[in-house]
Amino acid sequence: MRNEYSRWTEHSKTDEERLQGLIQLFSYLSLKTSGDVQEALEWLRDLARQHGIFDEDLSLEDLIEKLKELGLIEEIRGIPRLTSRGINKIRQDALLQIFSSLKNSVRGSHETPLTGTGVDRLSETKPWTFGDQPTNIDLTTTLSNALRRGDLDKFTLTEEDLEVYETELTTNCATVILLDISHSMVLYGEDRITPAKQVSLALAELIQTKFPKDFLALVAFGDTAQLVSIHELPFLSAGPYHTNTRAGLQMARSVLRRCGNVNKQVFMVTDGKPSAIFDDSGKLYKNPYGLDPRIVNKTLDEALQCRREMITISTFMVAQDSSLVDFVDELTRVNRGRAYYSSLHSLGDFVFVDYIRNRRKRYSSQ
Question: Domain 173-359: what homologous superfamily?
Fold first, then answer.
């Protein structure tokens, strides 16, 4: 039997690396198709025809069998669907992709000037005080302090010699991710909803794994706002909706009001333009043309109410139209929050730096 081998390079991938790469690609396409596995597999077939991503060692059929074997998909009446494990995999892959872009980013620095009674050690030390954990004692510095007071033959250790590592201040945090699913998120053929969902999924995975005691909720808003399970996030899609930012903020505020006295924040991912509100009679008033003062003012009123309830709004814009930037700047000024204008590809960098910074920040009532 005759075997042919391709030339090895340091960039060559093992079979396992190729498989993992294709599984990650499938996860991304499943997110892009709002959880439609059949459509995601059709995309893979198209990519195979155009770019030859499969070969005789690993075919599309092999990948499908592997996805079933790993419990990521299942067939119900002949139709492939994502399993709970498959949805978790999408979330994990989103987190991996976002953090891989953070590693070489100057925005990825998570430093904070505050220290406290957390569990994460810093390199700095301080004199021991009552309440400090014995496990945080810096033995080297402590012994050096004792030796500086006397010789080795008469070695004694006093309370004044004890030195402990500083620890990062960590606090409980309640976060609502506010995701725009209006028509403008897919307008003019530009896909803004997929990277917005990807960032939301990654943020959810970060909170649930690294900060499991933190509260997290997801609110999707278009004409109306609705509380959505994180489990349903991959299946969300942009619809024929206007952008009722006010309704989204109202629901986020209602959810956070029940969380007690903790740090509260809203992460709003949107292309920015509010185009609808409910009037006093409950009827949807909409104006998709320009920035309607009636809609803008009611939305700013809601941002002010969030500020009064100590809720910080961080707005992540996936568009940079000058009039929209002006609106978000005004919303940010009223709320005393934050605003980020970024490309679709760098959106994740801003979200994660801000989340971790917010979590380690003392909030004041100023």
Answer: von Willebrand factor, type A domain (3.40.50.410)
